[in-house]
Amino acid sequence: MTAARARLASARERLDRIQADLPARTQGSQTIGPELREARAAFDAAYSGNQKTLAGFLSTALNEAPDRPETRQALDAFAADAVANARLSLERGADLGQTIEALARAERAYGVLGLPAAVDLAAALREVRRTVSVRPTAGSTPIPSRPASGAKRR
Fold first, then answer.
1. Which of 12, 102, 114, 134 is deepest in the core (most CB within 10 A)?
2. Interatomic CA distance for residues 138 and 94, integer angstroms
3. Which residue range forms the structural domain that includes residue 44?
4. Domain count, the chain
5. Max Cα separation, the chain?
6. pTM (2 decimals)?
7. What CA–CA distance (Å, rounded) separates 110 from 86?
């Protein structure tokens, strides 16, 4: 479990470093596109691997040792990673369907233990769902606004 978290931390640090350098590098002659795409892909792969590792551990721990502190620690790590990924997904304008599912999966795990979801997890889930509900999809027609009260309809 710690190896997967270390790969995720390393990939996140690299992505953060590249994104922080983006303004300075784009004003010069250097291009960052391929490096940024590769860093994002590496982060996505590390995140997915970490989530799978944590989910496997949690599946066993929730069934066999729900009261152990290690179970709660793993659940908190699972939720924290889902929240961090949600923030990145919002920043990148990524497809948020998988992000919502990861957040909801973490929220359900808290429910298995009879605990309320972590505050930041619940807030991230609300924010992503709100963003999805207001973000138009490709090729969609925006929903027209309703006339103000008292306005005449045709």
1. 102
2. 12
3. 2-134
4. 1
5. 65
6. 0.64
7. 18
Question: Residue 14, Cβ neighbours under 10 Å: how many?
Answer: 17
Distances (CA, A) of 58 to 52, 62, 70, 75: 10, 6, 10, 7
DSSP string over 80-126: HHHHHHHHHHHHHT---HHHHHHHHHHHHHHHHTT-PPPHHHHHHHH
Examine residue 30 and state whether it is found in any structural domain, yes or no: yes
**Consecutive 10-residue averages of pLDDT for the chain (154 residues):** 84 86 62 81 87 83 88 87 85 81 89 89 92 62 34 35
Distance CA(132)–CA(104), nearest Å, equals 14
**What is the C-alpha separation between 86 and 14, in angstroms, rounded?**
18
CA distance 122 to 108: 11
Residue 35 covered by a domain = yes
